[in-house]
Amino acid sequence: MLVTTKIRSEYEKIQRQIFNMIPEKWDRVYLYASVVDHYSNLQTGEMFFYYYPKSLFKVNPVNVYEVPNRFNVDEQAYLKLAEKLYNTIKELRNDFINSGEKAWSNITISIENFKFKILYNYENLQNSKYNNYDRHLIWRYNYLGTPLSSYSKKERKMIEEYILEKGNNIEKQEKVYQEGIYDKKVGNAFEYGRQNINIVSTSVNANANTSINAEDENANANASINTEDENANTNKANESIFTIGKNINTAKGSINTINDNLNAKNRKKDAVNQNISLANVGTVDERIDDNEEETVTTINQILNIN
After folding, report:
1. Has residue 101 been placed in a domain?
2. In a domain, 81, yes or no
3. The pairing of beta strand 26-37 with beta strand 62-63
4. Domain extent for 105
5. Close Cβ partners of 83 (under 8 Å, ≥ 6 residues apart)
């Protein structure tokens, strides 16, 4: 497939406009657009696209036409962005025609895993037995994985017929182009945070692996730091518990020492009372001091007086 400088510039412009319309972090994007030529240079067609919000859990795709209600943004301003994107897609088609390429009737753009992919389809939409609504249902089944059980019986039959017809069609009416997404940063029209993607060129897989490995290393480093912090906190807690236990043991030892001293003093007091009674000196009001030598001196003085 011929890719001129002008066509490559249109690819970059389309990516920028898609990124600009998504007001939150996303994981992957799928877009469908058709252009049908009529007499007197009249063109008709349609465009719709969905994105998957970035999440650790399984999420449903978001129809971008629901963005104004979901994020409380001006609907008319948002529809103007959608119109500009569709016009850029039509410009891309004109560039193909001007480059001598066959005019395609519809395209599907997917952006995922750091890759920008376009599927060009050349079927005759004017003579197709499937209308716009049918093609939308078929497209959702093919690209969004909408289960057949969610369709009505009539819709399931129509989708199954389409799959059978496509499988039996020997002559393929499709072409595929793929490249890495562009590296230039894109501002968001709604000032919502969005993941910056810094992968470019056809070496996207190597760059993507480098980016993923860097994230893993950062995650491991953070995990290591958190583990060290937890170990440090655990050691500090153990030291505190040990200190508290040591203080409790010291306090118990002090209490035991005090009790021993009190018991010794009580025994001394009993001995003094017994000595005084034997000396038959009547009642003596004696106060036992903490000093043992003073207590013995006092006892001897009382005995000498008698």
Report:
1. yes
2. yes
3. unpaired
4. 5-123+173-201
5. none
Per-residue pLDDT reduced to its tens digit, 42-86: 889 999 999 999 999 989 999 999 999 999 999 999 999 999 999
User: What is the tally of structural domains in the chain?
Assistant: 1
Four-residue CA torsion sign, 93, 98, 99, 101:
positive
What is the torsional sign of CA 178, 38, 79, 85? Answer: positive
pLDDT in tens, 238-268: 455 445 455 545 555 555 665 566 666 666 6
Residues 54, 25 contacting (CB under 8 angstroms): yes
* Model confidence, pTM: 0.60
Question: How many Å apart are CA 244 and CA 215, to the nearest integer?
Answer: 43
Decide if 63 is inside a domain.
Answer: yes
- Cα separation, 242 vs 73, in Å, equals 60
Q: In this structure, is residue 147 part of a structural domain?
A: no
197: domain CATH number is: 3.30.500.20
3-state class (DSSP) for residue 257: helix
Which contiguous run of DSSP H or E holds residue 299?
helix 292-305
